[in-house]
Structures are given as structure tokens and as C-alpha cells.
Amino acid sequence: MRFTSEQRLDDDVVEREFTLGDIPGILWTPASASASAPVPLILLGHPPLGLGTMYPRLVGRARQAVADGFAAATVELPGSGDRPRLAAVDRARADMRRAVQAGEPVGDETVDALVLPLVEQAVPEWQAALDALLALPGIGGPVGYSGGVISLGIRLAVVEPRIAAAVLFAGSFVPRSMVEEARRVTVPLFVLLQWDDEGNDRQAALDLFDAFGSEEKTLLAGMGGHTGVPQSAGEAAERFLARHLS
């Protein structure tokens, strides 16, 4: 891990950009974090739109995490931002958009081609980032995961024992194999669902929630579209993470 920039956003938040090999990422920490007073870590998931596009939303979530006493970090997803494109994923995304615009169902083959290569490449990268982040002074466990792509969160929750709890955002297409994998998730879960999400199959989201194997799982559904998550829902998710990571 190599830090490429550092700035103080305000008196309490230190933002550092880094690269892990050729993968860009961002780390936000409380100014008070130190080797003698390490803080828990929240990994901030996001859709594959590029860190530059997602930054305003990510930094808002990171500021709240720091206010709650945590560090927060994220990395660029494969095929996003300035990273090399994933041609097969781009073709699947175009096929998905054509189907959605035509009012047609998105086939399983398209969903698999869109999501599975991303998960297979991204999860080891997030685990490598986690290795490097937890080796830094001032950051310790436990670790939480918060955000989308939901299939990425599912895989991380299954294979990464350092993740103690996860907040997942319903709304991305989920391969059937990932629904089966969700039955192996056991960490406490908090799932946010927008009832009128124009890009989400509501029943599929409910079926996925039912499939999760966690003994503690909460579904919070709010009215409105994909970007209309109410502030109260975000605050409830923050309280959930604070309870499990503090």
C-alpha cells in the first residue's frame, strides 16, 4: 500500500488516497486514531461507477463513520474509473440496459456475465486491501462492510472471517448462484430496500433476504426510488454497525 495524498477534511477527519498495486483507494480516519487507540474499520461498498463519480456519496458516508468512531475505506472496483475495462462485463451491462429499456426481463445468463466476473476479481482485491489496512497503526478490528454491489457483500461475508457485520443495499441484479451462497452468510445483517426501486425486482430482493442464513437479520424497507433512501434508514444502519463494531 502506498499513500499518494493526505488532507484534513476538518478537525476530525483525515483523508488519504492510496494505491494497492495498481488499485486506487481512499482511507478516512479520525485524527485521534493511533497505535495505542486503534479504531474499528468499515469497508464502504459502492456500484461500479468509478470512485470519482461516487466520491460525494462515499465521503458523506465516511464522515459519518468517523463521527461514530470508526475508520472507513474503499477501493476502485475492477473495470471502473481508470482501471482497465472488463469487456465481457461491459457487453453484459449493455445487454441488461437494452432489456430494461425495452421492458423485457433480464436473463440469467446476462446477470451472471454482469456480476460474477466482478465478484471473482473484486473480492480478493478487497481482502488484500483489508490485510494492508489492518496492518496500519490506528486501525484494528472488528470490521464491517456497508454498501453495494450486494453480491460482492455476500461473497465477502462468506469468505472473510474478519467481517463481523454487514449493511447491504438491495438493488443490484443477483445471480442464482449468489442466492444459494447467501444461505452460508451467518454474520449479523441489516438490509436496506427501496420499495419502488426502478432498477430492482422487489420480490427477488425479498427472496434473497429470506435466503440469508444469518440468525440476526433485519430488513428495512422505505418508500421511494433507488436514490430516495430516507435519512432515518441510514441512521438506523449506522446504529446497527455501531452496536456490532464498538
Summarize the structure.
The protein has 246 residues and is an alpha/beta fold. The chain has helices at 51-67, 87-101, 108-134, 150-159, 176-182, 202-211, 231-245; strands at 2-8, 13-20, 23-30, 39-44, 71-75, 139-147, 163-169, 189-194, 217-222.
How many helices? The count is: 7
Rounded mean pLDDT is 93
Distance between the termini: 26 Å
Radius of gyration: 17 Å
Class inferred from helices and paired strands: alpha/beta
Question: What's the CATH C level?
Answer: Alpha Beta
Strand content: 25-35%
Spatial sequence of strands, sheet with the most strands: 1-2-3-5-4-6-7-8-9
Describe this protein's structure.
- There is one protein chain.
- This protein has a nine-stranded mixed β-sheet with strand order 1-2-3-5-4-6-7-8-9, with helices on both faces.
- It has one domain: Alpha/Beta hydrolase fold, catalytic domain (Rossmann fold, 3-Layer(aba) Sandwich).
- Helices cover 41% and strands 25% of the residues.
- The protein is globular and about 55 Å long.
- It is an alpha/beta fold and 246 residues long.
- It starts with a strand and ends with a helix.
